[in-house]
């Protein structure tokens, strides 16, 4: 197979074919590449609001870029299934690790699985844990405005709760300085008060 064909057929290159929210009816579908792109934009906005010395923005963007590469071989496994047990989660990781090793170099595969629990870059991992559900929240709010359903209201509140929990992890870590901490506290307060029925 030619090198062009290798790139063309690599599942990672074709992440734009993997739809997110696989168990939810959406007016406008979203793929994994759109999720990653918007997550990077959210990271840049957050970076402009916090103390820049608190995080390595290049490391954060790298983590965001790779954190869902396993979906190139697994597709979008619904959250409530993927995290329903440690056994299911570890088995899905094992399968994706095995398949990804056919397409990517080993260090990158290792980075994918430590992107959200990396002790060396803990601050960036914590912010990624927030950005991931927060981007989903933004998408679901837009969908909720298009089709006001109980299912979407439930999903919005679920993403809101996951975002709040991630902010508590950031604040409880006590790793961030005052300017950054105050920004995350403000986000937390606004998310706690947020009502999807009231437009932003």
Question: Which helices and strands, and how do they pair?
Answer:
Layout: H1 3-9, H2 32-49, H3 57-66, H4 71-74, H5 79-82, H6 86-100, H7 106-114, H8 122-146, H9 150-173, H10 178-193
Helix pairs in contact: 2-3, 2-8, 3-8, 8-9, 9-10
Number of strands: 0
Structural class computed from helices and strand pairing: mainly alpha
Question: What is the CATH architecture term?
Answer: Orthogonal Bundle
Low-confidence stretches: none
Give the CATH H-level superfamily: Hypothetical protein af1432
What kind of sheet is the major sheet?
none
Mean pLDDT: 90
Overall morphology: globular
First-to-last CA distance: 50 Å
Gyration radius, to the nearest Å?
A: 17 Å
What's the CATH class, please?
A: Mainly Alpha
Question: Which terms would index this structure?
Answer:
single chain; 200 residues; mainly alpha; Hypothetical protein af1432; 10 helices; 66% helix; 0% strand
Question: Would you give an account of this structure?
Answer:
66% of the residues lie in helices and 0% in strands. It is mainly α. The chain has one domain (3-193): Orthogonal Bundle (Hypothetical protein af1432), CATH 1.10.3210.
């Amino acid at each position: 197979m030619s090198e062009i064909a290798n790139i063309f057929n690599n599942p990672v290159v074709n992440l734009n074919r993997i739809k997110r929210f696989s168990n939810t009816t959406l007016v406008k579908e979203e793929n994994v590449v759109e999720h990653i792109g918007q997550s990077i934009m959210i990271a840049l906005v957050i970076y402009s609001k916090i103390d820049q010395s608190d995080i390595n923005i290049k490391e954060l963007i790298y983590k965001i870029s790779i954190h869902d590469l396993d979906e190139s071989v697994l597709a979008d496994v619904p959250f409530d299934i993927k995290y329903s047990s440690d056994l299911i989660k570890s088995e899905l990781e094992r399968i994706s690790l095995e398949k990804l090793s056919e397409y990517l170099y080993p260090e990158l595969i290792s980075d994918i699985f430590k992107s959200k629990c990396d002790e060396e870059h803990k601050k960036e991992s914590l912010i990624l844990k927030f950005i991931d559900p927060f981007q989903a929240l933004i998408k679901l709010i837009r969908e909720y405005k298009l089709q006001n359903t109980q299912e979407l209201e439930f999903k919005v509140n679920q993403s809101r709760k996951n975002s709040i929990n991630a902010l508590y992890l950031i604040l409880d870590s006590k790793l961030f300085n005052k300017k950054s901490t105050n920004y995350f506290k403000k986000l937390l307060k606004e998310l706690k008060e947020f009502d999807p029925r009231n437009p932003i």
